[in-house]
Amino acid sequence: MSLMKYESQVRPPLVVGDKDYHQVTEDIVRPIEARPSGLWWIGFLVSVALLLFGVYSVYREVVYGTGQWNLHKTVGWGWDITNFVWWVGIGHAGTLISAILLLFRQGWRTGVNRAAEAMTIFAVMCAGQFPIWHMGRVWMAFFVLPYPNTRGPLWVNFNSPLLWDVFAISTYFTVSLLFWYTGLLPDLATVRDRARLKWRKYMYGMLSFGWTGSTKHWQRHESLSLVLAGLSTPLVLSVHTVVSFDFATSVIPGWHTTIFPPYFVAGAIFSGFAMVQTLLLVTRKVLSLEEYITIEHIEVMNKVIVLTGSIVGIAYLTELFVAWYGQNTFEMWAFMENRANPFSPYGWAYWLMMSCNVLSPQIFWFRKLRRNITVTFFMSVIVNIGMWFERFVIIVTSLYRDYLPSSWATYYTPTIWEIGFYLGTFGLFFTCYFLFSKFFPVIAIAEIKHILKRSGDNYKEHMDVVEKKHSDELFVEAHAEHH
Amino acid sequence: MAIKKFVVGVFEEEGNLFNAVRRVRKSGYRLHDVYTPFPLHGLDREMGLRDTSIHTAGFIYGITGTALALGFMTWVFTKDWPLNIGGKPHFALPAWIPIMFEFTVLLSAVGMVLTFCYVCQLAPFVRKHHFDLRSTDDKFVMVIDISSNNSETEVSDFLTNLGASETNVQVAETGWWLGRYDKEQKLGASREPSH
Questions:
Q1: In a domain? residue B190
Q2: Pair (B112, B76) in one structural domain
Q3: Does B189 fall in a domain?
Q4: Which of A131, A281, A353, A465 has the smallest number of Cβ neighbours within 10 A?
Q5: Span B57-78, mean pLDDT?
Q6: Which of B23, B137, B173, B184 to probe the A interface (max A CBs under 10 A)?
Q7: Residues of B in contact with A152 (CB under 8 A)
Q8: Rounded to whole angstroms, how far apart are CA atoms B91 and B77?
């Protein structure tokens, strides 16, 4: 057994402190069993208030039409589609952490995957709102589904990237939800089996589907997780690729570029990890889970942020270069005048995006700053502001001065109901996250137990002894255990 | 399902478990199941369980999705209602790849999860007998079926020798039933074992 559990001393422990299996359960389930704090209530109520404001904003849009927003003929996509792409991008980190890092056997994912996956699901829920309500006549939203109808039947256009998006987003949401929930089953059973209160036993009994922890079930569960991870890996890359096709397959200057899919995917991972940081830095503090979401986890995620931020930076520069190299008048105008010229109406947005996304993450080349919690929190917010402006710049600066100067738009500013809708999705997102952090284990209990004896602080100490032993000795020991 | 009699051994350490399973099987006792708080790699092999074929099911669901998506789009755009979209071919395979891919993933994932729930008999309000509630926390629980002819004390002693920290005897329903976990529903407790 000693050989099986060996992990190098060089790797810092993933679980700090003197933990055994029971202590892990205690630590992670405690917030579920305790009464929510005053801080939780304040956060929750503020979120609900935002959500209600959003509901009212959407109500106005449904009743009076999209005229409630400042969209017009020239800028037909504004805050709504900006917010859609922004939320979908944020929704990429969860599945990336749970699926791609599972395939890469990254042990550190166990501390953060549950919360990140939950965040993914909530972010995709928020994202989905925008195209749906943007339709205007939302009661006809089901027209996007290919169902037999009395109009012919007239089918949807399967060649359209907007329809690909319908399939991509709905598949992504469904698969992420299934992946998240199957992972939750054993942990919900843990909560159920230690519950004292009747309602808690009832609720978690129902939610955990009668999970027992049978070896056969675990075997299937492992196989299921692995295959779902294998499916989700191309899926997560495909979703933002398809979102980028919404732009790239058009003939609008600034959108019609082949670099969009990889550039969008890198940006999505970038903003997704930033949001994971924002949420987890607060969660670990409020629920006192610092021993499970350690500074090591934060540092690793900051490394992902500086990597993907730099990829995004290279993409920005490549776009500028190709615009110049291609010598297409319209493309040049879109990039050099509408975007990069700091004195053009939206030049400020472009340079805000550049400084937030490309320059500021470079501070994470320094180890000290990567491991600084205040800096990380501040940066995670900066990155998401930058990524919001990226989408805004792409959408609005390409649209507001089109081929025909007589239809050039004046400055596009959102109405209060457009802003309200956006704030409403924040409300939805945080309402869901607050409920999640109260009623569900925010860390995958079973997965932490699985790595505890390999990466736990107290167990790693004993590995010192193992490390100094001669390999022959270990072989003899392992051999003896078999007899 | 059947109501049977079991000896339950509670283990503190997963390390002892592999050896214990090996010994139990060697001695000819009928191993009912081992309940663990997290997956123990290799324990399924040790128990002589065959590999799961859930991934094969996933593959079949997946290619069904691909075929359905391709077939449906082909039928719609070449037979049912051929639309002239900018003079492009009706059979526009490259443009259909995103939807074919998404539908493959969707069917595969949904199908596999439903299959998983079916074969493991997992659903809301499904209730099963739990031999030891701590098996979802920190204990490793080995259950041996003694309804055939083994004596309780013999098996209990055997498990204690293998490293079980405690043992007990339970009469229980082996299958699932519809029920709630907030209610005590010991189906088997009142009745005698079927043997």
A1: no
A2: yes
A3: no
A4: A465
A5: 95
A6: B137
A7: 81
A8: 7
